[in-house]
Amino acid sequence: MGPETLVLGGRFRVLRHIGGGGMSEVYLAVQLSLGRQVALKVLKRDLGKRPDMAERFRREALLLSTVDHPAVVRVIDFEPGADATILVLELAEGDTLEHLLKGGPIEPGRAVLLLAQLAEGLGAIHEKGIIHRDLKPQNVVISPTARGEQARLLDFGIARLIEMGELETLRGLPDNPMISHPGQVVGTPAFVAPEQATGKPLDARTDVYAFGVLAYRLLTGQFPFPGPSSNDFLKQHIGMAPKPLVEARPQLSEHPKLVALVMQCLEKNPDLRPQSANVLTEKLVELLPQSPYDSSVTTPSRRLLASATTTATPVPPEKGPEDSGARWRDAQAKAAAATQALLQVGQKGIGAAQSVPTEWKKSLLVVAALLLVAPAVWAMLPPTNGERVAKLLDQGRGEAALSLLDEKLQDASWEAPELYALKAATLHSMRRELDERDVLRTNPYQCLLQAHPLLLDALAEDFGRAEDDVELKALIKIVPAEILEPHFDRRSREKGSERQWGSLRWLDLSRKKDLQGALGARYISSLQATDCTIRGSASRRLAELNVREAIDALRALSETPKEKTDDGLVNCGQDEAAEAIRELKRE
Hints:
The chain is α+β, with helices and mostly antiparallel strands. Helices cover 52% and strands 10% of the residues.
């Protein structure tokens, strides 16, 4: 779609591309009838072409278009087509909250106003039966208005619908796009609620939890959990207490009610959180600074507008006492001295650390002691479930591994994602491919966001055997790229095997440009596989890639004696290797 393109029956003129991602591209356009600018979200072509998805998008767009609130970006129009499925959205001008946070945490007075606006917007979509499910700073735009800043929600419902549409390729779901189905984990891992991370049913309180994570980040510039990986965040949301807000930013101790509200939003048990976005709005409105217009205010929306009028100019970030910089520099100096002393302890013994400031000595001794005993303590720790399953599989005790996993899954613990992944890997090792696939279909996000290495190896072998399997490819794509690609890259460097072949084929078919130069050597390794199909396929691919340095390895394979059977000699890649040599020499 280029500049000056007319779309939707000539009603909109595209001006330029303004952004996009994995699911859609966004264009700036003009609605010709009214002369106003709008945003056109063009959804992925493969989704738009499916009749069932087109109908889902139509119904979702119809529902979303009924939400009329200043904190929600409206859907104006929708149209499916042979070439593209397009949502026409109100143009939200301004910076995202994520961009705003690049300048550091937001001053509490300003943050409360923005949060109250967002809470009221969430209440508006919840009243229509919509759960956002992906509330995060990137999905909030701060627009300038005559009354001051206005926070506005983006992408509510749409991301959820797309995820559900992709899952339709894996299994049949009830034909209701407003239902959140058990067993699915959809959303951004740093912001998902515990019930979302474990694939349980969701409701409005799920958004309240994500709102708490967003508020924490807004007020501190940090996350309530350390992460850093997607899997880490999922586990921490389920089983770790969030870092207290006042520890992340001590200045917030002057705002105890705000701190208490944010921490309440982060309760693991949904029953302990504010029970709706409307309740959240009322509590935040109570924390707004007094406005000269308060006497006439009777609703949250009016109160927010009145407060925005008096705080139209953002308050600069708060500053600490004048001597805070000096205290910080002094603390840094002491920390540096302690670190240096710790290094000296390792080299010369405890006597070398006598110059350490007194207040650091006890900590230094504790750290030194831990360093000495850490290996022994580590060796004494009980094995993880993953280690136990791996050991049982190495011993050929697949049934024992399955019994262990089923027993652990009875607890419905926070380990469920890893346990499901291990169960699929165990079934794979037992050659129970249909049962393995059933576990993956039933718990796709549980299994694949966790992406245990044993399961990744199983997926690589599955792909090597059936690289045209559409369902399998859809499943593998659920695995976060930052987990999948490094693992497959390592496996593709190994000596020829089924998992090496599957990893290599995935990387090759994904057309990873940074790997193209290395593919030849890895296909040469595949010639050593015991599987005859792999040998033959690797030979053909080496000829296609014109890897002339493979000629010696191909010759060695072609000259390998063929196995004799009652039916004659059996080809195990020798014929393909000989043909590949002829092709390469012709080049």
